[in-house]
Amino acid sequence: MPAEPEQVVILGSGIVGLCTAYYTLSLSSTTKVLLIESSRSRLIAGGASSYAGGFVACGSSWHEPPAQSLARHSWDCHRQLSDALRGESKWGYRSCGAVGLAVGGTDESRSKYRTLPGGKGKTVIKADKERLPAGQWVEGEREELDTAGGVAQVDPADFCKTVHDYLSSAFPDRFTTLFGEATALSSPASTLARAASAVLPSKLAPSAKRILTFVPRDSNATPTEIPFDRLLIAAGPWSAAVCETLSLPPIPLTNLPGHSLLIRPALSLFTPSTSSSNPDLPSEAVFAGISGAVGGVHASTSGLARGLTEEEKREGYTRSPELFVRANGLIYVAGENSIPERGGPQRKDGLPNKLPDTVDGVKELLDERCVGRLKRAAGAVSPLLKEENGAVIEKEQFCYRPIASDREPIIGPLAPNVYISTAMGPWGITLAPGAGKVVAEMMLGRKMSADVSKLAPTRFAIAKL
Ligand SMILES: Cc1cc2nc3c(=O)[nH]c(=O)nc-3n(C[C@H](O)[C@H](O)[C@H](O)COP(=O)(O)OP(=O)(O)OC[C@H]3O[C@@H](n4cnc5c(N)ncnc54)[C@H](O)[C@@H]3O)c2cc1C
Q1: CATH, residue 447
Q2: Can you give the residue ranges of the FAD dependent oxidoreductase domain (predicted)?
Q3: How far is the CA of 372 from the centre of ligand 1 (A)?
Q4: What angle do CA 71, 69, 120 make, to 5 degrees?
Q5: Is the same domain home to 174 and 265?
Q6: Ligand 1 within 6 A of 396 CB?
Q7: Which of 78, 182, 397, 443 suits 309 as a labelling partner, its CA being 20 to 30 A distant?
Q8: Is pLDDT above 80 for 175?
């Protein structure tokens, strides 16, 4: 087996960077990991990784063929991580049902909504004076969706915090986090230097390491040179900008905005099922289509971001909301993927707006119109989620997903000693543990646990290896 790298540097502390750090440190007994995060307010996982729904679906019916092997492996990694770090109590890891719901839909909207994977067993649920039948919490025509291959849920913010805390305490000599920016990358070592360093004793060998110039986020901000053996770009939607700054091959990456809410439901309106001793809402992910909905696929995959149309402004509700019952009793609601008004105009090439320079500027873009649309959609799906019935909006959130031009993840070598893992789109929480393990194996020169060959950046014919 070739010598393992001494120093791995990971750019980005989202779920992808954290899972890769976890598996690199767990698989190797010597490799050191330096995690660099550019947040000015020193946030770990301050992007989508803390504001996502946390729905984990690993069966083939939820993913296109190029990512199916990775998704299957990620299911095992989620379970393994949960067993190792007490995921059930730390990040609310639990199995979950998946439901398609047509709310007052026309025939046309219902047939589109049925394109969700493998719906079966339709039941119409209707409230009587805001009270739903026992055991039910949403109103409309329900269909059970395909859960083969595994469906679960996590609280992604708690997941990321637990993993980062664990790495900091379990690997004090091999794991370091620095806040700041990587501003330049040295040229690759010559082929001769790399060959010589592989065979000569380290004292005699020329260095095959590349150098990253790093400017820390502190008052004196003096640039530092960091030698490394492997560099991973895992900066979510900022990964394209990182490639540009470091003069790496460009990647066709854009972003898809997403607003979300965390709602404490009005539980006084919920009657537990007589057949269950559990007084809580069922562990369920609900993919709803409200009358005239254009969606029916996982809402966040239903198109690249665009501004609200005049019709949507008049309608005033999110057409394809997604609702997840969290283990802590809160309901997460998303599916409003329009560009926020302050996010700047849509670009002429049809791609979404430019991102703020760092993650810290994202929350200022939260758009009250989008929040209002989500609140009204939540109320249309369940009386338990209406503020006038006692529901409490605990959080209003906004963030960006990284998404590639062909909607598939980008995972693999990008340049000598440089790797990339991004563009997980609406599936980053599902895929990150599997991607973290496979990329760690790739960087350590090990056999890979999943086939990610179709996800390599070379598919865009731009990466120069
Ligand atoms: C509303 C919404 C709901 C979602 N729900 C789900 C779901 O239910 N299930 C699911 O599987 N997925 C879901 N997703 C998708 C998932 O959240 C993302 O795919 C995933 O979080 C992306 O993780 P990441 O680590 O690639 O990026 P991010 O979380 O964006 O992390 C990137 C990190 O890199 C940092 N960074 C940026 N630039 C630099 C730089 N130059 N140097 C160093 N660091 C840098 C950022 O500050 C950030 O901390 C959802 C997404 C959204 C928006």
Answers
A1: 3.50.50.60
A2: 8-442
A3: 24
A4: 60
A5: no
A6: no
A7: 397
A8: yes
